[in-house]
Amino acid sequence: MELLDKLNILADAAKYDAACTSSGLDRAGRPGAIGSTTMAGCCHSFSADGRCVSLLKVLMTNFCVYDCQYCVNRRSNDVPRAAFSPRELCELTMGFYRRNYIEGLFLSSAVIQNPDHTTELMIQTLRLLREEYRFGGYIHAKAIPGADPLLTRRLGLLADRLSVNIELPSSPSLALLAPDKKKEAILAPMKQIRDGIAVSQEELKVYRHAPRFAPAGQSTQMIVGATPESDRQILTMTQNLYDKFHLKRVFYSAYMPVSSSPLLPAPQDFQPPLLREHRLYQADWLLRYYHFRAEEILDESQPDLDPRLDPKCCWALRHLEFFPVEVNRADYEALLRVPGLGVRSAHRILTARRVGPLTFEGLKRLGVVLKRAQYFLTCSGRMMEGLRVREDGLLRHLVSLESPALAAPMPEQLSLFDHAV
Amino acid sequence: MPWTQVSYQYDGSFAGFLTCVFESYVNHEEPVEFRLPDDPCCSLYPLRAVASDRDHARRVYRSLSAKFGGAGQKLVARGFLTCLPDRELWLWRLIQKGYRQGAAVTRDLTDPVVDKVNKAVYHLEHEAHLYTGFVRFSDLEGVLVGEIEPKNRVLPLLRPHFCGRYSQERFVLHDRTHQEALVHQPGRWAILPAQDFQMGPAGETELAYRRLWRSFYDTIAIEGRYNPKCRMTHMPKRYWGTMTEFQNDDGNARQGLPSETKTRPRP
Fold this sequence. Notes:
By secondary structure, chain A is of the alpha/beta class. In chain A, 42% of the residues lie in helices and 9% in strands. Chain A has helices at 3-14, 86-98, 115-132, 149-158, 171-177, 183-206, 231-245, 274-289, 294-297, 311-318, 332-336, 343-352, 360-366, 370-373, 391-407, 415-420; strands at residues 45-46, 52-53, 55-59, 104-108, 138-142, 161-163, 218-224, 249-254, 325-326, 377-378.
């Protein structure tokens, strides 16, 4: 089989993995080697669906012994199969990397023969890449649940980031759709990676050249919309993952109909829940950068995110007693709670108000989105001039601000309202 | 006594600009415009030609960090690389303000002058960051050659990134807009003026890798999530002209969007 055909098959099989970040690690280029990584990561292109392409995202092979209903590579699915040899994949990675097409390699695999054999193949590839080709770029590897912990450890010493897919947001769904995978089998490698990272960080404090185990941390992803979990369950689970497993990222992947299993939503006229995925990511950002807790964003009376408004606006409307916030006095945490104020503009406010009192004119210069923030802010005790909206009209006002952005580019998303409301 | 208003003519270099700042303070002159030697001359203000003086320039450059800190110095140096219209004038105003206020000037983000320069520098840094990803090299007989068309002069910002990453490679990165090129070989680099730059023809291996990359790029998109507007937000079309995935083998733009020309081989 030609290399081009293999690449097509194995990239096509890997594309449903949402994670394609190259962030979390600063490593300068070394003499004699090729490659470096940056803390913020780097996007090398954007595909036609608007997602970032930063890593060469491929599977080692798509021959699989499992039969997970939601997965395009399941045993019972009739698709062309292929496998890279370690050497082929290294040549391809280096060829792309030298031309600055990619930031590194994202190596995943279907389970061929058994988890141990699959992991061994991946280790072989990464070892070749790191030691023979002296590759210093980013490597994201998937840990295969069920593989021997020693093999997972070796994988983590070669890769920068490890991830284990949690696949579905609850164990009943997992039992239903992925009968070969167990919750415990997924959590075991996650725990091992968490502990490995902690030990490695401790060792690095004492010995500068101690081996680095998954220095860019670990991440995971789950499929949203294939099973009946509420947003509240998903967010609570996400928060637990951040708290207990110290994950760098949790990715959500809107379910794409790739199978006609009776257990899944019918593939005919099924719209992937893209807006829901978008709202979940917004809530995820609130957890990671805005000091929010999952319980604040959603509670039992309101188990799902409002598709019409972003989660921070929703929180603000439910907690009007918190507002208005005085720009010249409020602390960083309070500023972060204001809709229309982000991490960057909050920092700018802190810097700029050391020089003199801020006005609404000045806020506009700082990049604050006043069309949302104006209802929740005062400058030196005064609201924005000419602002006349009563509390009950506020929701309508904010929704109408957001709606053009939702309706115009993707008309199919509007139909989601009918289902959700 | 108010300063006399004059129009400065200098050689377009950063040292030349700093010399102008020096001259303006020595002679108590306020520049109302900066011009290059080949600009058409028609101005109501008296014209003063300033020759670059390395010592004077260095004195001004040192004073920047002394008076308003490392951050202020960096702001001025980077501001000079931006494509802000009348950037010399804005920078002169910033320096004047800095000499008066001290280090607080870099914190005064709501001031119109500081804001103007800050936004321009942000634009420069953002463009440079995008280009660290969007640059495409071609392997032409062992030398990597790439071309870009930036609005700002991003080469000095791209230099540490690419020289660190490809420390063992020989490469040339040509800036079409400003007619200069970053040239690197192991251990040495230079940014040189380069007119009439032409990329050589690609060999067989190079064409094969381009084909592989285009094919990967087309495959990685999920049809059910097709969202061209989102792609253009993250990667505006002005970058597409120099990117491999949007070109045919002969170097012309590909017909149609990649998702429309999508083919999936079924062996």
